[in-house]
């Protein structure tokens, strides 16, 4: 890890601690992190930065649990099981914290392209792309008028409805490394189409990440397609 990477990790840890401090005293934050309250005070107030080992622990272990709890508090389910995650996907500052935590937790390799589906996946995709300094590409259910060449992936669902996604062919180059992300995975159909688009482009998939997994079906479906890491911030049964 070079000096710039160490500094970025330390700042990410401070951002996680500041988010946690919004609803906790320093003593409560100490119970959550296992770090002394005095040290936490200095980190949160910007007097010093945590060492790299301590920062890594905050981002990977404490950060994931804390962000998962925060996500759970913001997500709502209706009586039919539909998910309202607007409190998450509309909060870019929260998603900016998710990106480094996901990268550390699931050990995603740095991609050339972060690929997602319009529209709810775009804000998460932007956060991940910014963190990795990668290009963002998003597939849509309709073709852009001025674009001539597309990569197209189509699937007929169990309901009989046909789902098709289009990505401008110039968005992903052969040999690119691609991280597939989305806000939610349930059946895995959308993720399967995104993975198919990446494979059609002769790209290498470095991982699949989602904020929310509803059940295991979609996650297992993704694992059947790629050997790359597949992870979710939190899972609902």
Automatic annotation (TrEMBL):
Gene Ontology MF: a single term: adenine phosphoribosyltransferase activity
InterPro entries: PRTase-like, PRTase_dom, Pur/Pyrimidine_PRTase
Positions of the Phosphoribosyltransferase domain: 93-218
Transmembrane segments: none
The protein's name in its UniProt record: Adenine phosphoribosyltransferase
Domain of life (superkingdom): Archaea
Organism, as annotated: Halorubrum lipolyticum DSM 21995
EC numbers for this chain: 2.4.2.7
Key words of the record: Glycosyltransferase, Transferase
CDD domains per record: PRTases_typeI (cd06223)
């Amino acid at each position: 890890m070079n000096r710039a990477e160490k500094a970025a990790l330390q700042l990410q840890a401070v951002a996680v601690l500041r988010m946690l401090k919004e609803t906790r005293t320093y003593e409560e934050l100490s119970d959550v992190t296992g770090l002394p309250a005095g040290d936490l005070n200095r980190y949160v107030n910007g007097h010093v930065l945590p060492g790299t080992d301590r920062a890594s622990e905050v981002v990977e272990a404490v950060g994931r649990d804390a962000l998962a709890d925060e996500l759970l508090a913001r997500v709502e389910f209706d009586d039919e099981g539909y998910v309202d995650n607007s409190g998450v996907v509309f909060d870019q500052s929260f998603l900016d914290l998710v990106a480094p935590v996901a990268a550390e937790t699931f050990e995603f390799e740095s991609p050339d392209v972060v690929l997602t589906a319009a529209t709810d996946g775009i804000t998460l995709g932007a956060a991940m792309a910014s963190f990795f300094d990668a290009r963002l590409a998003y597939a849509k259910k309709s073709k852009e008028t001025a674009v001539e060449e597309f990569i197209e992936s189509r699937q007929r669902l169990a309901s009989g409805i046909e789902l098709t996604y289009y990505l401008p062919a110039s968005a992903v180059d052969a040999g690119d490394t691609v991280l597939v992300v989305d806000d939610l995975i349930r059946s895995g159909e959308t993720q399967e189409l995104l993975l198919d688009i990446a494979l059609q482009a002769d790209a290498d998939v470095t991982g699949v990440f989602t904020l929310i997994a509803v059940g295991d079906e979609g996650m297992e479906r993704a694992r059947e397609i790629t050997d790359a890491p597949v992870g979710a911030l939190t899972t609902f049964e």
